[in-house]
Amino acid sequence: MLVLLLFMHFCTSRKSPARYFYNGNRPLVIAHRGACGYIPEHTLQAYETAAYMGADFIEPDLVPTKDFKLVVNHESLLDQTTNVNEMPQFSYLQTTKSIPTYEGILTQTGWFSEDFSLDQIKQLKAKQRIRTRPQGMNLYFGKLTIEEVLDWVIGVNKIRLIEGTPLLGVYIELKDSAYFNSLGFNVEDMLLDVLKDRKIDSIEGASMICPIILQSFELQSLITLGNKTDLPLVYLLEEGYILHNISYYANFVDGVGPGFNLIFDEKCSLTDFVDIAHENNLAVHMWVVKKDKPFCGFEQEETYKKILDSHVDGVFDEFPDLSIYYFTHII
Amino acid sequence: MLITLLFSLSIVSSRKTSAKYFYNTQRPLIIAHRGASGYIPEHTLQAYDIASYMGADFIEPDLVPTKDFSLIINHENLLNETTNVESLPQFCHLHTTKTISTYAGPVTETGWFSEDFTLSEIKELRAKQRLSFRPETLNFYFQKITINEALDWVINQNKERITKNQTLLGAYIELKYPNYFNSLGFDVEDMLLKILKERGIDNIKGASEICPIILQCFELESLQYMSKKTDLPLVYLINSAYPVFNMSYYADYVDGVGPNNGAIFTPNGEITDFVHQAHGYGLAVHMWVIRDDVPFSGFNRPQTYEAVLEAKLDGIFDEFPDSASIYFSGST
Questions:
Q1: Do the Cβ atoms of A148 and A111 come closer than 8 Å?
Q2: Which of A148-162, A205-219, B2-16, B148-162 has the lowest mean pLDDT?
Q3: Which of A12, A226, A276, B265 has its CA 20 to 30 A from that of B35?
């Protein structure tokens, strides 16, 4: 019986062989939507600045277009991050939709990526979502496809390979996959095709060309991906919307991506989340660190000290220069 | 008698400005060199916006004139290094070679020069990152700006800062090659002073309430000229590679000195006597330039800032103001 339990425990976790999934010295720094604290999110410019700041990964969120392209935006709604509402040629596409998401049904009015062709998306310009952040770069930069992002990273990495510096990685999230698949897309296969074209749909290829991590709020999507690729998988969790036991999902993924209030409770003390995750052989990547909206009201240096004390394995940071500087030099 | 004479000389040796914003007792002033130019194409509103958001005390515009007597912001009158001018066919005819007299001696350059362009022609250009190892995807989006635009932007930022009771953002302005431009018929000091006056910031009192101003220059004569017309703090820039006036001489005319890192630190990281001397004359010392990606004296990032503190520098010009802010303030 003991042997059986022991055997089950070993089976309870994948523990990815991807070396780029782990960093022995400090938490991985994942530039949340790029260096979006400074630059409009999910633009090449936000990613390039993040890379120059030393981030380990840039972090594209993917939604589909009408013509089956995967573009980078945090949600299919385009209002918050582009100038779509100022473009008369798109007035007619404004609509209201109810989308089933991991948070339940979300009803929104506006413009949605799945109603636009890629050519139409390419007419939009990106803007800073948050009004209190720098606004001077609004309406200059375009929206991208995941192909463009990956090709850019692969180009950056060719230089890094020559220089012997660590490769920049891409930490990809498919958004609302169940919903989009119900519309006739097949977002997991669409993504895997793009990765396969670049020979980075496997750990071996990704490690040499462009490290890839796949993340999602929908476990089923990760299970589907897990059947077709050995790339590391991370299951995103938000407090209040937890559907599965860790002992269950630990079978299917290599890491878990909790919101910070799963790591720090309402009194701002450390919970046992990280310990339990580590016992289940899961890496923990916490979201999101924002200098202009500190969690628990911590001072800046304190924020990063608390993160280190918590033993999380990675952080999503909208100001990646800060993570890098604090983890490398200050603390 | 001799003692009294020497004593009175020593008191006269320095202006010691009354501008409170010129001093910070807690830490060195953080002057964003050409904006947050480590990340964003230099001398654009965007580079200044990010610098401000990163916690810099001052943005740092360099001014050169246009043909039609505007003062635009560029590190030099040559436009090749920082804009796409060479790819614009409408400006081919303005390509030329000039020899410019500068503090470093005569400098001969070939390319396009701001004084040959009107402001509306300058506005057709787009800014690019000068250094190829820095991010380049921001190239060719942002326009070049006038000092008027930069100041109006800072003044606007400060309106909000005043409501939130935050320290005001300042502008640390350098007129480039004033001797040369004045010889062409410009009157760059008066051009600048007029723009400051229009905004009520050509004096310490107005500047302190609206937009702190510091004036810097490699040419002492230009600073001496301005000191007759304004009480704004003045900083004399020096490069240890070139001959400069004696400190005992210039200390009478300026409030601070802006040396390069080579004047403060030896190549193996020892501190020279410069700061000590300057402080003896009542001069603030603002050192240029700190660049995360081009370290000096073998220092890494935190070592650089530790050395700045150890050397007792009063301010630093930094192309990565986030690094300086984290180190000196504990936050950005």
A1: no
A2: B2-16
A3: B265
Residues A53, B330: C-beta atoms closer than 8 Å: no
pLDDT digits 0-9 by tens, A303-315 = 999 999 999 999 9
Instruction: Give the integer Cα–Cα distance in Å for B172 and B62.
Output: 9
Query: Is A52 within 8 Å of B135 when comparing Cβ atoms?
Result: yes
Identify the helix (H) or strand (E) that includes residue A225.
helix A219-226
User: How far, CA to CA in Å, does B167 sit from each of A32, A215, B86?
Assistant: 29, 42, 41
Give the type of residue at A271.
T
Q: State the nearest Cα–Cα gap between A62 and chain B, in angstroms.
A: 21
The yes-or-no verdict on residue A10 having pLDDT over 90 is no
Contacts of A44 in chain B (CB under 8 A): 137
Question: With an 8 Å Cβ cutoff, are A322 and B332 in contact?
Answer: yes
pLDDT score recorded for residue B8? 46
Query: Rounded to whole angstroms, how far apart are CA atoms A231 and A235?
Result: 13
Distance CA A329, CA A264 (A): 24
- Can you list the domains of chain A with their CATH numbers? 2-68+141-330 (3.20.20.190)
Q: Is the pLDDT of residue B66 over 80?
A: yes
Q: How far is Cα A215 from Cα A223, in angstroms, rounded to an integer?
A: 11
Q: Could you tell me if A41 and A317 are in contact, meaning their C-beta atoms sit under 8 angstroms apart?
A: no
> In order of start, what are the domains of chain B with their CATH numbers?
17-71+139-331 (3.20.20.190), 78-122 (no CATH)
Per residue in B157-212, pLDDT (tens digit) is: 999 999 999 999 999 999 999 999 999 999 999 999 999 999 999 999 999 999 99
Q: Which DSSP state fits B21?
A: G
A38, A47, A133, best to mutate vs chain B, most B CBs in 10 Å:
A38
Distance CA B22, CA B27 (A): 12
